[in-house]
């Protein structure tokens, strides 16, 4: 179990109510070491994701993983240049996608919601094991579908960089000042009682 807050987290984040430190310790650094992630560690992340909840137990999420010298460059053409300048160092890239059609042949309205739950489980397991993750929306889904041979009944959500945290100074100068955990709006701006309120 994650026992305490990481130093950079303690400087930038605090919870209004008591929660397990893993929730605050999970953030999205961009500086990765190039150290490889052992199979047993890496696949425990996907094992955690496997146990996420889903509507009617459809488990619509899928992951396409790239971690070899042959597979990783296949991902690069569909990742936005602003992300490529840092994510190419990550030892693992994973594309998360979800099947939009249910086992009954109908549209699964919860497919993206459920894939988000699987991503959350993966990210928390990574944090508990001393890894970092950074999910990127900056990529071309259509190009990714074409390159990776993804069928039309799947929606692509994010490319996730996975690995061990590197030094902030290893990043391009313009990214170094952003290399810290972000805050969150107050709970009162997110949770409403009875009716919706825009605050």
From TrEMBL:
Signal peptide: none
Annotated Pfam families: Nitroreductase
Occurrences of domain Nitroreductase (ranges): 25-83, 86-164
The keyword Cell wall biogenesis/degradation appears for this protein: no
A molecular function (GO) term: oxidoreductase activity
Transmembrane segments: none
Cross-referenced InterPro entries: Nitroreductase, Nitroreductase-like
SUPFAM superfamilies on file: FMN-dependent nitroreductase-like
Keywords from the UniProt entry: Oxidoreductase
PANTHER family: NAD(P)H NITROREDUCTASE YDGI-RELATED, NADH DEHYDROGENASE_NAD(P)H NITROREDUCTASE XCC3605-RELATED
Family: Belongs to the nitroreductase family.
Protein name per the record: Nitroreductase
């Amino acid at each position: 179990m994650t026992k305490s807050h990481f130093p950079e987290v303690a400087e930038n984040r605090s919870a209004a109510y008591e929660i397990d430190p893993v929730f605050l310790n999970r953030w999205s650094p961009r500086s990765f070491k190039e150290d490889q992630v052992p199979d047993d560690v890496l696949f425990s992340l996907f094992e955690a994701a496997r146990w996420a909840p889903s509507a009617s137990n459809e488990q619509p999420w899928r992951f396409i993983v790239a971690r070899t010298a042959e597979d990783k460059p296949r991902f690069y053409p569909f990742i936005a240049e602003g992300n490529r300048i840092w994510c190419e160092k990550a030892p693992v890239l994973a594309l998360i996608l979800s099947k939009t059609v249910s086992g009954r042949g109908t549209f699964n309205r919860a497919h993206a919601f459920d894939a988000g739950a699987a991503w959350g489980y993966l990210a928390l397991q990574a944090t508990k094991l001393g890894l970092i993750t950074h999910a990127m929306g900056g990529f071309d889904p259509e190009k990714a579908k074409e390159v990776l041979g993804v069928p039309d009944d799947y929606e692509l959500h994010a490319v996730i960089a996975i690995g061990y945290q590197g030094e902030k100074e290893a990043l391009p100068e313009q990214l170094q000042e952003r290399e810290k955990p972000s805050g969150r709006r107050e709970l009162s701006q997110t949770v409403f009682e009875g009716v919706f309120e825009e605050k």
